[in-house]
């Protein structure tokens, strides 16, 4: 039996570089599990923080150590010694390793900008090879919180009140900015959340309770992204549901995140012991079924494929379920919510990885037939 060569693509230029490495290590282990070892051969590709693609020993080193590779650890090609440093770096970023041509199916596990926002998906689409996860549209909609909310609104999914802004509005003249803050206060009130529209893992998010905090948070968000979203605060339980499939997706059991901090920020998310997972969530059966149904609706609304994790607010006092966001390339370590939700739904980690690769091949064959 000829093994399928899986291009495991990880690292990347976003702030979630280290998370990507952790996810890649877990996936590599799953691909080496007994039920997958005879089916797949792993070809790892590591994208350094400066954007250079590395194959061969370098990605194996990163997978083994779990630590990013420093730029200085990858020597420059001697043939490029006559170029300036700037020219060399530009050339190296645009060169891909020759092993790229050997890949049968790609498994990109790049989190955040330049990884799950449609950019790498566009490159893989141009290469005309199958890849795990959503395509350009689903990835882009899943990354941009403003476009995502517009898609959810069109699908009739309930969500918190929000206001979309641009950096130009925030950094406008001193006469316009106060009026903008007045409008936010009048429509959303306090507390509210200020978020860059295109960053993952709660990076740059601030919970604000006053005018001075709002002004500071807007300025900070504008330094991260030219698109900004402000959302009304809500007292609710935070629950999540995993989706798996293409045109006929399935929803997992519902899980819940518990934490003692003010909100589920980056530090809480990635500091051991700061947050807990309840799987399945102790919710009424009717509420769980409704969340699962809404997760499938959200998956379809953004044209997602393969996998996604959909996050919700459950307002216990009123019984409302509000969709928060969809993540089309969620964390994939053994302790991450997405694989754990499927584990509690009867799909073990190695089987989940296998299923995702098969879904990628299925979707690609369907596109090729169009």
UniProtKB/TrEMBL annotation:
Boundaries of every ATP-grasp domain copy: 149-358
Ion transport recorded as keyword: no
Residues bound to ATP: 145, 193-195, 201-202, 231-238, 324-325
Gene3D superfamilies: 3.40.50.20, ATP-grasp fold, A domain, ATP-grasp fold, B domain
Annotated GO CC locations: cytosol
Keyword Transport: no
Cofactors named for this entry: Mn(2+); Mg(2+)
Classification via Pfam families: Dala_Dala_lig_C, Dala_Dala_lig_N
Enzyme Commission no: 6.3.2.4
Family from the record: Belongs to the D-alanine--D-alanine ligase family.
Protein name from the UniProt record: D-alanine--D-alanine ligase
Gene that encodes it: ddl
